[in-house]
Amino acid sequence: MQLESMYQEIILDHYRNPHGRGLREPFEAEVHHVNPTCGDEVTLRVHLEGETIADVSYEGMGCSISQASVSAMYDLVIGKTVPQALETGDHFVTLMQSKGDAAVAEKLEDELEDAVAFAGVSKYPARIKCALMSWMALKDASARALSITETTPAGGKA
Amino acid sequence: MTVTVSRPGAGAQQQPLPLDVEAIRADFPILSRTVRDGKRLVYLDSGATSQKPRSVLDAERWFYENVNAAPHRGAHQLAEEATGAYEAARATIAGFIGARTDEVVFTRNSTEAINLVAYALSNAATAKEDAFRRYAVGQGDEIVVTEMEHHANLVPWQQLCERTGATLRWLGLTDDGRLDLADLGTVVNERTKLVAVTQQSNILGTINPLGEIVARAREVGALVLVDGAQSVPHQPVDVTELGADFLVFSGHKMLGPTGVGVLWGRYEVLDALPPFLTGGSMIEVVRMEGSTFMPPPQRFEAGVPMTAQVIGLAAAVEYLQRLGMTNVQAHEEAITAYALERLAEISGVTVIGPPDTVARGGAISFTVEGVHPHDVGQVLDDEGIAVRVGHHCAWPVVRRYGVPATTRATFYVHTGYDDVDALADGIRKAQRFFGVVPAEAAPPAGPTREA
């Protein structure tokens, strides 16, 4: 039985009771990402206060992995600066590339909190993109949000 | 306390199967391997690509070990034998679809065959030679497709229209997964240059009434291209009965190797088309100022061809001919009928497509309420069952039926009732795993697995 190694209880909890779901105002950038091989979609908004991520709101449809991933990401990035959040995203990518290597997961446990439960997904190459879709959307949206706040004096960035 | 639970499979009919599944499975080396910690491979993804019998693998190996040379060039014995083997394979494959040998063009797959026609039609508009302009597509012309086409029979036509200024029109679908022909008379009209339609839907399983469509196209003088990627492998197809101008299919979906597909075209039409890919092999005379081209089929086969794959495909055709395509179709129909019954027993499962075997092939797409198709596929995979999930390269179809994606099971000559039972049990397991049905209310396992 390998199913449980992918579908950790934490993942199923996030899937059934997603954190932060729904599109909210205000926001500086909104992106729409799709997974063209399977049709999964996410619409994601980022609201910055200075460089800090004040809110990430989203709507999407997709499998349990993609939906749980965006929920776990929400918990991880609120209150972080954009560079900090993107660094966490890089750690998540590392986890996804770990091919189930427990040592990698252990090292990243503190950094990734609930999201470390996705370690089992890294053994299934076809599902990695499901877990990564929301992180790619966040990277895209926060870059856009930053470029907007940087050109707007009211954004607070010098 | 009374719990009424019907035994799965109790109502489903197991007719004797036309094909000897155990004997056929023994011909496919891959079917003896196990997956996911020792599970028997239940391969229900032949619609994506089929597995290969030993005779196909042997044919390719035979070619490389004994004959390998570039056909249609070279002055040596190997080149002569390679040319002979390549052209003999063309004759075998042509015979399989009732075609003249010089009407069979080898391409990489169905996708390339469709692109070949689409590019030839736009190249015709700018051709220097009058003879190549007969089927030119341009502004004011219309191309007709259907809403159930695979992306391979949709996107090339969208692109042709963008290149030429022609307009793309399409026939819609009914709620039960069939073509809506109510508008046929207006959608296909005197402006229509070509109608491109699938014979068997890769996602719905629907077998389309080509006769009616071909008749309408003939009335208005439009060409007809039939996408046979899902029909030629699974039912008898004879181009003389089809009445179309083009038929395309892929070798890898009919027990043959990857990298080889077929464009069949009526000779008269092929002969009036300019080339798509150009280069060696397809030329007649080359001067620095310009070149002339060979007649079909060579005009459309630039470069050294996929010789070993063509020979492998001929071996696949011979394998199918030994089974008999009428038997292959009857076998899949029996399996499909059984699968539709087994799926209908599972509450929360909805089949997207025709609910019975009338004018229907063996592609069964379905949704499971409360479980995303990817997750269904993952649970099935854990049981050793290979299915496809997603939009199946027919995104407009899943959109039409209001679902984000489906799980799809497809059948072939080695599929037995035991494979369908495994599928039904796997779906129930997915429902239990994701808590859609309570674990204790789950019905007992299905009947004894026999092929």
TrEMBL record, chain A:
GO terms for biological process, alphabetical? iron-sulfur cluster assembly
List the transmembrane segments.
Answer: none
Sorted alphabetically, which InterPro entries does this protein's record hold? NIF_FeS_clus_asmbl_NifU_N
State one molecular function term (GO): iron-sulfur cluster binding
Residues of the NIF system FeS cluster assembly NifU N-terminal domain? 6-130
- Domain of life where this protein originates: Bacteria
The record ties this protein, via Gene3D superfamilies, to:
3.90.1010.10
| PANTHER family noted in UniProt | IRON-SULFUR CLUSTER ASSEMBLY ENZYME NIFU HOMOLOG
What is this protein's name?
Nitrogen fixation protein NifU
From TrEMBL, chain B:
Descriptive protein name: cysteine desulfurase
Q: Give residue ranges for domain Aminotransferase class V.
A: 42-423
The Swiss-Prot or TrEMBL record annotates one GO molecular function as:
cysteine desulfurase activity
Family, according to the entry, reads as follows: Belongs to the class-V pyridoxal-phosphate-dependent aminotransferase family. Csd subfamily.
Keywords recorded for this protein, A-Z: Pyridoxal phosphate, Transferase
Q: Which organism is it from?
A: Trujillonella endophytica
Entry cofactors:
pyridoxal 5'-phosphate
Reactions catalysed according to its record: (sulfur carrier)-H + L-cysteine = (sulfur carrier)-SH + L-alanine
Question: Does this UniProt record's set of keywords contain Membrane?
Answer: no
Q: Name one GO biological process term.
A: cysteine metabolic process
Source organism, top-level taxon: Bacteria
This enzyme's EC code(s): 2.8.1.7
UniProt enzyme class:
transferase
